[in-house]
Amino acid sequence: MDRTYQIIGVLAVGLMCAGHARGNADDKSQYTLFNPTPPDLMRELSTDRPDKTESPYTVDAGHVQIEMDIVSYVYDHSGGLNTEAWDFAITNFKVGLLNHLDFQIIAETYKLERVQDSSGSEELSGYGDTLLRTKLNLWGDDGGKTALAIMPFVKLPTSQDDLGNEFCEYGVIVPFAIDLGDGWGVGMMTEFDILDDASHWEWVNSIALSRDFTEKLGGYVEFFSSVDPEDSGDWVGTVDFGFTYLLRENVQLDGGVNVGVTEAAEDFNPFIGLTIRF
């Protein structure tokens, strides 16, 4: 419980500092869900995908952004088990509430999982869990070399066919971005997850280096880790690669592959995704 209070304290301090950190950049505070930001004042398209490192930038007030895995495949061989999983149309529905605040619903629309060992195989399929989260940008949304946000979330146990557990899980994500200039950028993220019946927690960290090769084409490389402090010998680590391609001003295609580099990580995870903003 002490860790939960620490997380709440960090959130409270961030909220108190938010107004001071923005300075004079907050010139669109009059725009809300019901008074949308005009198209000519909207920020460039920014997404929380395809890398695992979340973005500190929010969706403009009154606008909707849909980010999805069109298809994602996972293969893992560990402990005598072969696991294959397919995710279809896993979608993040995002809506801008205020100039620096958005709300997100992540729906695991359809999941198919097959686990095989020496005695046979088992197949599970159906709807997965639902994630509710909100993103508050503390600074950098509308300009500057750095940006920071806080993203509290809760996972609802809505999965079918034993594809998830029966517990609500919650936590907070803190994403940070640095514009290095000349098309280069760095994204970093730290995350605290309270899991199962609040009996244990995980600490997630990632760093991604991105590069805009042209006005439309970009790429990234990322390192991601997840650690259970009570079992630090069994941590998850992946090295991830991918690209983004801006088809139109508000439509982006992406793809990539996440490669496990520790025993606890999934071995191989290629995917293709799409983002559309309205």
Describe this structure as you would to a colleague.
It is a single chain. This protein has 1 helix and 14 strands. The chain has one domain: monomeric porin ompg (Porin, Beta Barrel). A 12-stranded antiparallel beta barrel has the order 1-2-3-6-7-8-9-10-11-12-13-14. With 278 residues, the chain is mainly beta. The longest helix has 21 residues, at 2-22. The chain has one helix at residues 2-22; strands at residues 64-78, 81-98, 101-107, 110-117, 120-126, 130-139, 146-156, 169-181, 184-195, 200-212, 217-227, 236-248, 251-260, 268-277. Strand 11 and strand 12 (236-248) form a beta hairpin. The model is unreliable at 1-25 (pLDDT under 50).
